[in-house]
Amino acid sequence: MLHDFSYHRPSSMKEALDFLAQNGPKTAVFSGGTDLFVVIRAGVAKPAHVLDLKGIPELGKISWDKTEGLSVGACVTINTLTEYPAVREHFPVLRSAGEELATFQLRNRATMVGNVVTASPCGDMGSPLMVLGGEVVLASSSGERRMPLSEFITGVKRTLIRPDEVVSRIVVPPTWAGAVGGYHKLKRIKGHDLGVVAVAMVRKENTIRCAISSAAPTPVLLPDLAATSSVEDVQKKAQSMISPIDDVRCTKEYRSFMVDIFIKRLMKELEAAA
Amino acid sequence: MKHVKFTLNGKPFEREVLEHRTLLHFLREDLGYTGTKEGCGAGECGACTVIMNGEAVNSCLVLAAELDGAKLETIEGEAAADGSLTILQDSFDKHHAVQCGYCTAGMIMSAKDLLRRNAHPDRHAVIEGIEGNFCRCTGYEQIIEAILDAADNGAAAEIAERTKGGDNA
Amino acid sequence: MLDQIPASELKHVGKQTRRIDAVEKITGDATYVSDMILPGMLYARVKTSPHARAKILSIDTSAASAMPGVRAVVTGKDLNFKLGLYVVDKDILAREEVRHFGEAVAAVAADTLEIAQKAIDAIKVEYQELEPVLYPKEAIKDDAPLVHPDLGSYSYMEAAFTPRPGTNIANHTRLRKGDIEKGFAESEWVIEREYTNPSVQHVPMETHVAIVQWGRGDKVDIWSSAQSPFTLRNLFCVAFKLPHRNVRVQVPYIGGGFGGKAGIGIEPLVAVLSKLAGGRAVKLTATREEEFSLLPCRSQLTYNIKTGVSKDGKILAQQMTMYWDSGAYADYAVNVTRASGYSAGGPYEIPNATVDAYTIYTNKPFGTAYRGFGHVEFFWGLERHMDLVAIAIGMDPVNFRLKNTLKPGSLTLTGEKITSHTGDIDACLKTAAERIGYGGITKEEEALAAKTGRKIGKSVVGLHKAPAMPPFTATAVIIKMNEDGTVTANISLTDYGQGTYTAVAQMIAERLRFPMERVKVAFECDTDRDPYDWQTVASKGLLMSGNAAILAADDLLKNAYGDAAQILRANVVDMDHDAEGIFVRHRPEEKVTFRQLAIGYVYPNGNGIGGPLVGVGRYIAQGLTHLNKETGQGHPALDWTYGAHGMIVAVDDETGEYDVLKVVSVFDAGRVINPDAFRGQAIGGMLQGLGTATVEGYIYDNRGHLLNPSFTDNKIPTSRDLPFEVEAIGIECPQLDGPYGARGIGEHSMISVAAALGNAIQHATGAQVTHMPLRYEDVWRAINRKEPVDNWITRSPFGSCKSNPEIGKYQCD
Predict the structure, then answer these.
(1) Which domains are present in chain B?
(2) Which residue of C132, C319, C367, C781 has the fewest CB atoms within a 10 Å radius of its CB?
(3) Comparing C7-31+473-620 with C300-469+625-783, is the CATH topology the same?
(4) With 0-12 CB in 10 A as exposed, 13-18 as middle and 19+ as buried, what is C535?
């Protein structure tokens, strides 16, 4: 059971942005609803309006070109993303993380944009997008702005999005295209679970990049490291930057420990794949 | 209220729906299609799985207002009007893939969706295909066996045939 | 009964048979209470306590009552009824004090669910928080605050339970066998350890739901997703002082229960709302979150075991102390304590034993029956202990078990003599060991270990359980022949997935010599129309209702033969029957069909004789007694079902991550009535046991708030969590008083799975886990002997062997 709200399904970007310009603070924007309707049901969010983006054709687009990179519209589902040939070819880390996200049914609705805008520390798409230098494109009736994901997410479920804005798409620049990559996630069961702690890593030429989820209020992106770095160096760097907590899912001690383990495993895996 | 037109198991529907109504509650309480169950209301258990526009979704996290133009498939559209079971359903029966029955509708819809995507899944693919559907009774083993056996007995072809015929989509 | 008939002579019993309830469940046709909407029905919601223990200073319901569409608002002060299965200790709504997080303090019925929720949100409750009682062992100290200061004034079932007024002890079960001091003195080794496990939620896929209509003249109709319609009716009538004939309980299909729906739950509250709303039907459906704390859970247990062992590995003495955390109310927890008390030693012979099992009130959601009825919890400790003792004394754990198993002539803890018909625990253990290749590592396992770096561990554990029930537990079955010669059986044991109805139908078909298609066991139960059954619990359904069904079939045949004897002018002893009808054996052409007899035989001239054919079968447990309250001696067990699990795991000893490669579950079922249903119970229960073993459990903060009341943080096994290979094997050592020799196995599949995991992990890595569940982190902590973490899940990650050096000669930590 959800509280009363009104449902809006604009058929153009302009219509959506005009609505938000008027009603932004009282409106929750959604595409998949896999997070929104959970928090509404729990009484955590009480929007007066919900704005369904799925009627806007361009937001359902996913595309790849060598210059801009990968562009993933707000309504592109995780299943569409992980099946998209360019993702499989150029960004295996996205596929690896996408396939770890929730269940098949939920991935039919959940979107990468939604996952990022929710900005949960345990969101699965944050750390892989950070290692790839992903950027969000924010649209409002006053225009468009663009920023790296690492700037966009500012805290636990906090981002720089304004109430009159939508994230229309995420752009993954071609810089890391072709990088081998992987995503390791600690779960409490073998089936679907939130990430108790997770590490995303890519390796291209002589550089590796690593980001960590569920170990700080936001995903933590490590500075670029030489592929020749020792496992211990990368682990030491990671440990200096994360700030895991104790909670019902895990202790900070084990979270820290598993970050080191995942770094070790990923470095070995990526070295073999490179 | 929102006006929506959609098909449910191949039959046209036109309704005024409450804007905050979930698809699950709309099916169960407004249309009386109670075959689809609620296990958690939060997208975790899969009991409410239906197929919408050819894709399995948790109907507890979909709004009825989103239905305009949609093609919905629910458990009520599976067995034929004369009561004869689909190959998949019969396989569930044969393999004791049912105990309390509360997860069964969602489980069958997930299995149907899987067989539509993959006519001959291996054991691992079946396990992945029903990962989003909790079953507290069976321990899944007989469900997995039922789906594998159904695939061997032409369940995917039957699903494709019925989809083409507009019978349930 | 009928246990001597060889399998080759049976047509239905023991044969592959489809479930009689599958089609309606597979098509979505089966109607559960959650699906039902009655004319004019109102919807209820409940206001629950955010505190574990608090005084209710005031409840302001004025805004809620004033809302349009609100038809009834109720708080505890309006309700002076006490509820309780064994100890009558619970109010319908908390009255002066809330005793656990999630306890109901007010409720509303309204035209729609949305209005009801708004009204609940508008109810203002003022609390004064009190220091909660959370730790059972602290709760029994003299200065502990009392959860129930009025315990001395509560009524309780005196034949079975011993509450201690002025304490938090809701029951103390005591058992004394032999001379424990002598036993310890003669022991070569004395080893003592403590094992713990948290509370766990049942997670039926259908949450608790009830519709009640309190009509004029105090006629009450209840539709509930309940396991035990008659017990529900009885407790309801006792609480409201209504004659039983006034109350009708109907139970359609049930979406799982696992013990959580065994007694009485939300029905009285819904009934009160209906009465206040002028007799309109009211429906209350628990949300998944409410299922965790408004409704009961499985009790937490701390189990201390001290074992004395002879030089050659025979157990000589065992002192067993159980601290059962009942939570805020006694409910079934007192009986879990009692049943676990008399089973506490497992399927092993212990000549000198003491058991002290305490049910302790705390300010937490209360404990109730859960598949295994205490045995999942205490076998975690017991079967871990068996391995630890074996390792400590340098004996192979399986040989140690086999040396100590109950054998014909052995005396159980309560002094019951084991016979050759009790079952064969040795066969269960040996089969499990053989099927996992115990004692060796296969080439494949070796290759896997080499490839993954994981360590392989194998374990074999035993288990047993008898139904926990009053010694005079009874049931009845009525079989009615329909006009066409088919039969319909009425039974008020419920089938919420176990498959008992299918098994009962098979037995009826067997006895009547009918094809299965001619036998219906009616699914919806109705206390107005069905014969009595005590409760659907305890794995007693197959045995007791099976026997009653056989007796009912025989009774129906007796009536039919009586009619046929007149019609055919023959002697009953000279007659026989087949599926079609009854005939004279030496003149088989002289035959009267069941269709002719079904509703009374009619002669060509219109005369009729006989009348509608009905058979009644009654069955009551035989020869059982109450237990002596001082010594625990007596005969509590209808039957003992033995079993064993063998498990293979592969553990990463660096991180504690593990895979369960294989589980083999073996049960002495007496006779397997339906092989597929047997397998479904075996594997389903095993995975539920593995859920308990690996991840499930309530986590509280130190104020008693439940921190994980949802699937987000209370995970249950998914299809991916199934072990790579599972096997279920039935041993058939017939139960003389079981139907066709059968005994129940419904709960047994879940028992000892956790210990199998703990033992296999220890064999792989040396990790001495004494607390379950075994999350990867817990295994990691145990391997590395890290300090315990003080929440209810990760406490006590490694063992502490506290043997007393003066008595024992072995000390491990």
Answers:
(1) 2-76 (3.10.20.30), 87-164 (1.10.150.120)
(2) C319
(3) yes
(4) buried
Q: Give the pLDDT confidence of C445-482 residue by residue, as tens digits.
A: 999 999 999 999 999 999 999 999 999 999 999 999 99
Topology (CATH) of C7-31+473-620: Aldehyde Oxidoreductase; domain 4 (3.30.365)
Alpha carbons C522 and C20: distance in angstroms, whole number: 10
| d(C-alpha C579, C-alpha C561), whole Å | 14
> Is-contact C758 C784, C-beta < 8 A?
no
- In angstroms, the CA A106 to CA B24 distance is 15
d(CA A18, CA A23): 9
Q: What is the pLDDT of residues A71-111, one digit of tens each?
A: 999 999 999 999 999 999 999 999 999 999 999 999 999 99
Cα gap B108→B48, rounded to integer Å: 11
Cα dihedral across residues C476, C494, C86, C463: positive or negative: positive
Q: What is the CA radius of gyration of chain A?
A: 18
Class of domain A180-273: alpha beta
Determine whether C645 is exposed, middle or buried from the number of CB atoms within 10 Å of its CB (0-12, 13-18, 19+).
buried
**pLDDT level of residue C303 (50, 70, 90 thresholds):** very high
> Can you name the CATH fold of C41-130+208-285?
Aldehyde Oxidoreductase; domain 3 (3.90.1170)
- Do the first three CATH levels of A6-55 and A59-175 match, i.e. the same topology? no
List, for residues C605-653, the tens digit of each pLDDT value.
Answer: 999 999 999 999 999 999 999 999 999 999 999 999 999 999 999 999 9
Question: Three-state SS across A105-167?
Answer: HHHCCCEHHHHHHHCCCCCCCHHHHHHCCCEEEEEECCEEEEEEHHHHEEECCEECCCCCCEE
Q: Contact A125/A118 with Cβ under 8 angstroms?
A: no
Q: What span, in angstroms and rounded, lies between the C-alpha atoms of C174 and C227?
A: 30
Are A189 and C776 inside 8 Å of each other by CB?
no
Predicted ipTM? 0.97
Write down the architecture of domain C300-469+625-783 according to CATH.
2-Layer Sandwich (3.30)
Q: Which helix (H) or strand (E) holds B125?
A: helix B123-129
Q: Sort out which chain B residues have CB atoms less than 8 A from C35's CB and list them.
A: 28, 34
Q: Reduced to 3 states, what is the DSSP secondary structure of residue A7?
A: strand
Q: Which of C117, C720, C789 sits opposite A190 (nearest CB)?
A: C720
Instruction: Answer yes or no: is pLDDT of C802 > 50.
Output: no
Q: What topology does CATH give the domain A59-175?
A: 3.30.465
Answer whether residue C785 shows pLDDT above 90: no
Specify the CATH architecture of the domain A6-55: 2-Layer Sandwich (3.30)
Q: How many angstroms separate the CA atoms of C597 and C784, rounded?
A: 75
Q: Do A104 and B42 touch (CB under 8 A)?
A: no
Q: How far from C69 is each of C96, C270, C271, C283, CA to CA, in Å?
A: 29, 17, 19, 15
CA nearest B62 in A: which residue? Answer: A33
Where are chain A's structural domains?
6-55, 59-175, 180-273
Position of tokens 């006792």?
C238
Residue C703 to residue C585: CA distance in whole angstroms: 77
Of B45, B98, B103, the CB nearest to C22: B98
| Partner-chain contact B55 A108, CB within 8 Å | yes
Q: Which helix (H) or strand (E) holds A180?
A: strand A180-186
Instruction: Tell me the pLDDT tens digit for each residue of C126-173.
Output: 999 999 999 999 999 999 999 999 999 999 999 999 999 999 999 999
* pLDDT, average across residues B128-133: 98
Task: Give dist(CA C659, CA C649) in Å, integer.
Answer: 6
- Contact between C683 and B37 using a beta-carbon 8 Å cutoff: no
| Best of A4, A122, A189 to mutate (most C CBs within 10 Å, chain C) | A189
